[in-house]
Amino acid sequence: MRASATIMLITAALLMTACTKEEIKVVEYGKTFGYTYEGQTLYYIVDSSGDAAVVPPMFPYFDHENDDMWTGYDKPKGAVVIPDYVPYDGSEHPVKRTIMYAFFRCYDITSVTLPSTLVSVDMNSFLLCSNLTSIVVPEGVTTIAYGAFDTCESLTSVKLPSTLKSLGDWCFYSCVNLSEINLPAGLESIGQNCFTYMPALKSITLPENLKSMGIGVFDSSTGLTEVTIPNGITELPDWTFSNCTGLTTVHLPEETTSIGYGAFNNTPSLTGSPLPAKLKTIGDYAFMYDENLGPDLVIPEGVTSIGEFAFGDCTGIKTITLSCTTPPTAAESSFPDYGITIYVPKGTGNAYRSHNIWGQFANIIEK
Q1: 3-state class (DSSP) for residue 9
Q2: Are both 12 and 138 inside the same structural domain?
Q3: Domain span at residue 13?
Q4: pLDDT in single tens digits along all 367 residues of the chain
Q5: Residue 301: phi, psi to the nearest 5?
Q6: Half-sphere CA count of 283, side-chain side, radius 13 A
Q7: Residue 102 falls within a domain, yes or no?
Q8: 24/125 same-domain check
Q9: Is residue 212 part of a domain?
Q10: Does the residue 210 lie in any domain?
């Protein structure tokens, strides 16, 4: 299992100060305590500023022999409610975070009500909660961290707050039954592989405010059929839609300048010629195995570089129309068939015919 294999107890990481004033600043080791609320006993720590966080009961220790942080403790089951405040040392303390691995391998949880005081869902908080079916993240939360809901295989309902700014790497990885997720308008960043291997996901609307995406965000989400990338994303990251075998249509902003390595690798249902007007570079393996591209591939005027196997095995391409007055750099492997016709701008025929790659095409016609 990718996620569980990465679990390490690194003391330095647990002593890190928070990035914002809202988050817990220093963890006080040895202060873990249990509190029972609505029939469920959960475990907490309180930091020096008086804020509380949900933790696994063995925190900060990890039972490597059993791959667990709940050894010897009863794990919560069914519907779990986390209170807004917990009593400790004679005072009430607001619950601001779920600390890393807070509910790791709590297989019998079906739903969680998070406190209204929450500001952050930390790394792998609900990793491998395989029977968790629904989650509502409250208003005020700005960050959902790395792997927070990784491999929550029964998750079918997620509600995200309007305050959310960032979704971390691998956040909803392998949530195989989640068919819909509404992203808030204020979301600014989506981390690496955030929605990878989500075959039930049929559609998703990316907010116009989105400014950054990590690599492989939708890799292997085979149910997706159509996606529009917002104007704020001008460089499509590597592997973004790799193995999205159901994807037929993608709308890229005209201002897109680069399509990354393997961005559409093995998306065989993708049709037409999806290259935007301002494109400059097409990465290695960008459209490899996309057999339904074409029949005419239109390469925009500003393209300067086409990577190795960029259109490898794209057998549906029957002609290529280039608007480039200077032949782009390319590799011999960039195209699968040099027996087809390419159309080039008037006055550029000789430049293409003398080019070490473009000159291999059987027919070069000025247009």
Answers
A1: coil
A2: yes
A3: 1-203
A4: 443 333 333 333 333 333 332 333 333 444 899 999 999 999 999 998 999 999 999 998 888 888 999 999 999 999 999 999 999 989 999 999 999 999 999 999 999 999 999 999 999 999 999 999 999 999 999 999 999 999 999 999 999 999 999 999 999 999 999 999 999 999 999 999 999 999 999 989 999 999 999 999 999 999 999 999 999 999 999 999 999 999 999 999 999 999 999 999 999 999 999 999 999 999 999 999 999 999 999 999 999 999 999 999 999 999 999 999 999 999 999 999 999 999 999 999 999 999 999 999 999 999 9
A5: -60, -35
A6: 17
A7: yes
A8: yes
A9: no
A10: no
For residues 15 and 124, membership in a common domain is answered with yes
How far apart are alpha carbons 75 and 136 in whole angstroms? 21
Closest CA to 349 of 362, 361, 366: 366
Q: Are residues 320 and 351 in the same domain?
A: yes
In a domain, 213, yes or no: no
Question: Which residues on adjacent β-strands are paired with residue 189?
Answer: 166, 212
Confirm if 211 and 187 have CB atoms less than 8 A apart.
no
Of 289, 201, 277, 207, whose CA–CA distance to 242 is shortest? 289
Structure tokens at 264: 């559409």
| Strand ranges inside 47-125, DSSP E | 52-55, 78-81, 85-88, 91-98, 109-113, 120-121
Contacting residues for 5 by C-beta, under 8 A, at least 6 apart: none
Per the structure, the count of domains in the chain is: 2
Q: How far is CA 26 from the centre of its chain?
A: 29
Residue 194: which CATH number? 3.80.10.10
Backbone angles phi, psi at 124, to 5 degrees: 55, 30
- Do residues 233 and 199 share a domain? no
Query: How many CB atoms are closer than 10 A to CB 52?
Result: 27
DSSP, collapsed to helix, strand or coil, labels residue 351 as helix
